[in-house]
Design brief:
alpha/beta; 7-stranded mixed sheet; 5-stranded mixed sheet; 9 helices
Length: 281
């Protein structure tokens, strides 16, 4: 999708952020939409679903969504999977560009939203789920009306909170609650067989936001987000873990470096897809 560069970089001046992402003549920058899939013998765990294709053509135009079809379903198909094969969908938060892919593609004449992933357990942060039910007018447009009810009525919704842990054999997922971007966003710290990765949601939507003071205009509490970034980045750096970017249009993940002199974090070993992790260290 495309979003206004100024909105994506908050109070950072264009002279700075345009070095990282080149805007078009309308000040729009291209934003990626990435989901993460973990395949196990008995489980297929999907982290987020992107914006999907539930919006009508006029709403897609309004939100500058480029694709006209459900790209996630196409991507799953390339791996020999259908949405019915997914056993768990973990949502960092319920903003439309992270949870819209839960819904069937828009069709002329269909009035009601319908859920995909009929065999999956849906997992979302309790605080953010409650926020989606009764959002503030400042972020009301970011949530999908009726989605919370659909998830609850599925009887497959599990609400999670800070420090909850999900274990599948050697795979462990620790949930870390963040409130700077939106109240109750859930970060997933994935650990398995010596490998560690943080699914960062919108705490750092792309590698340019690793710079601690850089936040989005969409963030509800920017100063709190900066403090949360610092805390979680220190842990990632110490653990030599990867960080997964949901909105980076070029890079899927990186590790972090910390400059002791400037006291700044920066991305390192940037990879464009996770297949490169085998050679990136």
């Amino acid at each position: 999708m495309k979003l206004d560069g100024g909105a994506m970089f908050g109070n950072a001046p264009k002279a700075l952020w345009s070095r990282w992402m080149q805007p078009d003549d309308r000040n729009m920058i291209t934003i990626g939409s990435r989901a993460l899939l973990i395949e196990m013998p008995d489980h297929r765990i999907l982290f987020e679903t992107g914006a999907g294709a539930y919006l009508s053509p006029d709403m897609k135009k309004r939100f500058q969504i480029v694709e006209s079809h459900h790209v996630l379903l196409e991507s799953l198909g390339k791996k020999g999977l259908a949405h019915e094969d997914i056993t768990h969908v973990i949502l960092s938060h319920l903003h439309f560009d992270h949870a819209g892919g839960l819904l069937k593609e828009w069709e002329e004449g269909r009035k009601d939203l319908e859920l995909l992933f009929p065999n999956a357990q849906f997992m979302a942060g309790k605080t953010n789920f409650e926020r989606s039910r009764s959002p503030h007018m400042r972020d009301k447009a970011s949530f999908i009306p009726g989605l919370a009810n659909l998830l609850e009525e599925s009887n497959r919704l599990k609400l999670i909170k800070d420090k909850d842990i999900l274990i599948f054999g050697e795979l462990e997922i620790e949930f870390i609650e963040s409130h700077g971007h939106t109240p109750g966003m859930i970060l997933s710290y994935i650990q398995t067989q010596g490998h560690k990765m943080l699914f960062a949601g919108d705490i750092a939507p792309g590698h340019a936001w690793i710079n601690l003071p850089i936040t989005m205009g969409y963030d509800r509490f920017p100063e709190r987000l900066i403090d949360e970034k610092k805390q979680v980045f220190q842990r990632i750096f110490k653990d030599d873990a990867w960080i997964f970017y949901t909105h980076d249009n070029t890079y899927a993940a990186s590790k972090l470096l910390f400059d002791e002199t400037t006291k700044k974090f920066q991305p390192a070993n940037l990879v464009k897809n996770l297949d490169q992790l085998k050679t990136a260290g």
